[in-house]
Amino acid sequence: MNTRFVYKDSFSVIGKMGQGPAANPGEWILPIWEDANAHFHEISPFVRHNADGDIAGVWGAMNDVDEQNKRWNDSGKYMAGCEAGADAQPPEGWTKWTVPAQTYLVAECTSDTYEEVFGKITNDENINIVGTVHERYPEPGNPDIVELYVPVAAGMLFCQSCAMPMTGPKDFGTEADGSTSLDYCGFCYDKGRYTTADTMERVIEDCIPFCIEAGGYKDAETARADMQSLFPKLKRWAKS
Predict the structure, then answer these.
(1) What is the pLDDT of residue 99?
(2) Residues 217, 211 contacting (CB under 8 angstroms)
(3) Residue 114 predicted with pLDDT over 90
């Protein structure tokens, strides 16, 4: 099972929506896709397109019955749709959902391995799922290739050693067993060990040049003051 962790900003989906029991989702979700696929041309002016001009960002978005971004209980809602801009307005007969900014565990699967992968993730006690799971179809028109977007944190995660935002697979450190660390970045933590200086003051001084180069601060004094205020709140440096 190929997985990665990514941050995705808040995004909207315009699609056809339905509601049904969690026990047999295939019976009521398939007709939603049939309806959406037959009428996607109606929302083409309102959704995002790829470089070739084709509709991009095809999603099978899920929600609880109250649309609070919570996991399904006995029933749930499902939307077959396409990613759209925040200001896009759905035409008549279509619905728009806005998914909050979250950090996701993204798992690749196929239509044949979907249930196995979904079950493995949702039954793993080490994975803290904080919201509803979504399906992304990276190859529009090919329903056999699926990416499961499993939210594991609200918003963006920041390294608990240096405060670097962790938004892509290469940003995250690793634990001793090779699993991904959601607490520390790859610059500070590798194979279960810290790889940067062992004092907060030294890490701050090492970070200052990078922060200035990235445009976050105009001078070292301002950067140092902000970090001296923030770093004691980070997991690595917090006083027990």
Answers:
(1) 97
(2) yes
(3) yes
pLDDT tens, residue by residue, 181-207: 999 999 999 999 999 988 999 999 999
* Residue 217 CA: distances (Å) to CA of 59, 84, 166, 222: 38, 33, 19, 7
- Tell me how many degrees the CA angle 18-110-112 measures, rounded to the nearest 5: 90
Give just the sign of the alpha carbon dihedral 48, 10, 130, 18. Answer: negative
Q: Are 113 and 107 spatial neighbours (Cβ–Cβ below 8 Å)? A: no
C-alpha span between 83 and 117 (Å, rounded): 24
Q: Show the beta-strand stretches assigned E in the chain.
A: 3-8, 11-21, 58-63, 75-84, 95-99, 102-110, 134-137, 145-154, 157-158, 165-166, 172-174, 180-185, 189-190, 193-194
8/150 Cα distance (integer angstroms): 11
Q: Are 137 and 146 in contact (CB under 8 A)?
A: yes
Task: Output the pLDDT for position 197.
Answer: 87
Angle at 51 between CA 166 and CA 96, to 5 degrees: 70
Q: What is the pLDDT of residues 27-70, one digit of tens each?
A: 999 999 999 999 999 999 999 988 888 888 999 999 999 999 99
Mention every residue, 6+ apart, whose C-beta is less than 8 A from residue 84.
12, 13, 14, 43, 46, 47, 48, 96
